[in-house]
Amino acid sequence: MKLISFRHDGKEKYGVVSGDGVVDMSVRSGDRYPTLRDAIAGLALGDIARQADGVSADWALSEIEYMFPITAPEKILCVGRNYRTYHEVVSDDALKYPSIFPRFPSSFAAHQGAILKPRVSDTLDFEAELVAIIGKSGRHIPADRAMDHVIGYTIMNEGSVREWQHLGAQTCPGKNFYQSGAIGPWMVTADELPDLSKVPIRTRVNGEIRQDGATDMMIFLLPDVIAHVSTFTWLEPGDMISTGSPGGSAVEEDTPRWLKPGDIIEIEIPPIGVLKNTVEAE
Predict the structure, then answer these.
(1) Quick one: 111 and 232 in the same domain?
(2) Quick one: pLDDT band at residue 94, thresholds 50, 70, 90?
(3) CA–CA separation, 72 vs 87, rounded Å?
(4) Distance (Å, rounded) from C-alpha 257 to C-alpha 251?
(5) What is the pTM assigned to this prediction?
(6) What CATH number has the domain bearing residue 259?
(7) In a shared domain, residues 51 and 85
(8) CA neighbor of 178 nearest in space, from 220, 238, 241, 124
(9) In what order do the strands lie in the sheet with 208-214?
(10) Domain extent at residue 30
(11) Residue 228 lies in a domain
(12) Do 276 and 157 meet the contact criterion of CB atoms below 8 Å apart?
């Protein structure tokens, strides 16, 4: 099941994607669950599936404005350098724990929204990532039970302003420029991706394939990441954990082709779909 948050006629809604349309669940479940995050926290996705079954779409996807699948996540956590590529050799003395950093919701655009190239830098890069969405709260979650806490998945362009990752000893500024990345277009429930062992991840810039990898290149697998993160913080329904990006970003090129205004970037992860954005100048 594909679940989406959106605006229609200026009103925030959520629903179930059905073909080229969306079944508006906010009019059917909104009194109890005003947002998709509320529905997830209320363990209501089974009810939503039953209510949407066989129902005609209320709106065409072309009629809506996309929002983040979870409109107000408490936490967005990302795993850095989590893929083996021909640019990076993982040795026996590699890090024993994943590198985790936070991202602000304001550092992302939604599907079809504008990614902004900052006025202070020309080094805007792209990173295609699979994102896990937490459905059940937990702390100190063992790895062998971690997937019980995942309710679905979405796509992230974990856009980075590379120059600003090295101004000082921290990466946080370069990872949090306003609308430098994107999330969407919707979330799929976990049953749509039962096997994470080799999920394809592909990025196209202006139609040219720049990244072409799969999740079998991950260093730290999702259950281990969840176990690690939940050691230092509570995970709550609607939290997002982005799992890292395969090789092929601009920073890895001998002459980097940074994103520039007018570029169209598409990130495809089946069976989720395609996250598409256009780059604009700030």
Answers:
(1) yes
(2) low
(3) 36
(4) 8
(5) 0.95
(6) 3.90.850.10
(7) no
(8) 124
(9) 114-117, 273-281, 264-269, 200-205, 208-214
(10) 2-66
(11) yes
(12) no
Q: 136-157: string of b/e by CB count within 10 Å (b at 16+)?
A: eebeebeeeebeebbbbbbbbb
| Residue recorded with tokens 């946080």 | 172
**Do 223 and 79 contact (CB within 8 A), yes or no?**
no
Residue 43 has pLDDT above 70, yes or no: yes
Q: Is residue 136 part of a domain?
A: yes
Give the Cα separation of 214 and 217 in Å (integer).
6
Question: Which pLDDT tens digit goes with each residue over 107-150?
Answer: 999 999 999 999 999 999 999 999 999 999 999 999 999 999 99
Q: Are residues 218 and 259 in the same domain?
A: yes
Same domain for 61 and 81? no
What are the b/e assignments for 164-182, b being 16+ CB within 10 Å? bbeeeeebeebbbbebbbb
Residues whose CB is less than 8 angstroms from the CB of residue 113 and which lie 6 or more positions away in sequence, other chains included? 66, 179, 182, 277
Strand extents, DSSP E, the chain: 2-8, 11-18, 21-24, 59-60, 65-66, 76-80, 99-102, 108-110, 114-117, 124-125, 128-134, 150-157, 160-161, 181-189, 200-205, 208-214, 240-242, 264-269, 273-281
- Are 112 and 35 within one domain? no
